[in-house]
């Protein structure tokens, strides 16, 4: 991967109750990188460090190849940011919000903003508190998309939205950002959202990264294998990521489907997996490993 919009190098963050361990990934330019993890896994903390709102205990973070501190105004000018909640005074009208936000961005585009309001059916003259949750999210998006940013950071933009609005928001993100030069970092706990729009996936669990790969690679290399438990020996068990055995039948995820196929032929069934299934297997596997470690 060539140019990177965001890089995290061996970042650690610790508080009394929570720690992020050796967080290491990058967001390549021109692609959508999905950042997945259950609520409380550390996604928002990571995003706050990227935005320089929290300082890592160690490691370094770069945006467009440089630390935020070197040029905070210039770097933030190039970022379109959407929080899961709208951080605007709800007594303001949309009109006033634009008036106060516009000066922060060198390329604020009033025409474009009005276009988005029209498209999203958002009133320019209404108070923010009169808008529904879905409308507030669309307003956040309209703001983020109206200053010709190069990088978009979305923190759970579809949380709490009904499926119709969620689909609409995903469509917008996909359509608007297909321009090759735009980069997107999209955090969510809803895996099916990523299945649709992500090129790369970073999966955070309990402060550790458990998956960091392209979606294509994940779908190509992971398969579900099922067969007779008596066929399994220790060596084959090692090739299974989270294996469940019931009534003499085992079922597990593997990156070595070919091996099982060569050994057992028709005796095993090998099937493709969705991103969601792959992620769930990794989560279960990690839990199993941690429970095993804690038991010792």
UniProtKB/TrEMBL annotation:
InterPro entries linked: AAA+_ATPase, ABC_transporter-like_ATP-bd, ABC_Transporter_VariousFunc, P-loop_NTPase
Keyword Metal-binding in annotation: no
Gene3D superfamilies on file: P-loop containing nucleotide triphosphate hydrolases
Sequence ranges assigned to domain ABC transporter in this UniProt record: 3-231
Listed EC numbers: 3.6.3.-
Keywords: ATP-binding, Hydrolase, Nucleotide-binding, Transport
Top-rank EC class of the record's enzyme: hydrolase
GO molecular-function terms, A-Z: ATP binding; ATP hydrolysis activity
Name of the protein described by the UniProt record: ABC transporter ATP-binding protein
């Amino acid at each position: 991967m060539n140019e990177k919009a965001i890089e995290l190098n061996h970042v650690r963050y610790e508080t009394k109750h929570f720690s992020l361990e050796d967080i290491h990934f990058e967001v390549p330019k021109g692609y959508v990188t999905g950042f997945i993890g259950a609520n409380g896994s550390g996604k928002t903390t990571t995003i706050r460090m990227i935005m320089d709102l929290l300082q890592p205990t160690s490691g370094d973070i770069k945006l467009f190849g440089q630390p935020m501190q070197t040029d905070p105004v210039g770097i933030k000018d190039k970022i379109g940011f959407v929080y899961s909640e709208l951080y605007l005074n709800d007594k303001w009208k949309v009109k006033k919000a634009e008036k106060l936000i516009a000066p922060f961005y060198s390329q604020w585009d009033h025409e474009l903003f009005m276009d988005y309001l029209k498209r999203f059916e958002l009133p320019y003259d209404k108070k923010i508190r009169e808008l529904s949750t879905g409308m507030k999210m669309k307003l956040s998006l309209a703001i983020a998309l109206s200053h010709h940013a190069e990088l978009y950071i979305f923190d759970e933009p579809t949380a709490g939205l009904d499926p119709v609005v969620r689909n609409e928001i995903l469509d917008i993100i996909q359509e608007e950002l297909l321009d090759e030069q735009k980069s997107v970092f999209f955090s969510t706990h809803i895996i099916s959202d990523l299945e649709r729009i992500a090129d790369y996936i970073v999966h955070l669990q309990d402060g550790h990264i458990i998956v960091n790969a392209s979606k294509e690679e994940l779908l190509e290399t992971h398969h579900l294998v099922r067969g007779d438990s008596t066929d399994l020996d220790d060596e084959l068990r090692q090739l299974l990521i989270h294996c469940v055995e019931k009534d003499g039948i085992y079922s597990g995820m593997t990156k070595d489907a070919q091996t099982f196929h060569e050994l057992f032929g028709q005796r095993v069934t090998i099937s493709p997996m969705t991103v969601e299934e792959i992620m769930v297997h990794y989560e279960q596997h990690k839990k199993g490993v941690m429970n095993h470690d804690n038991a010792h």
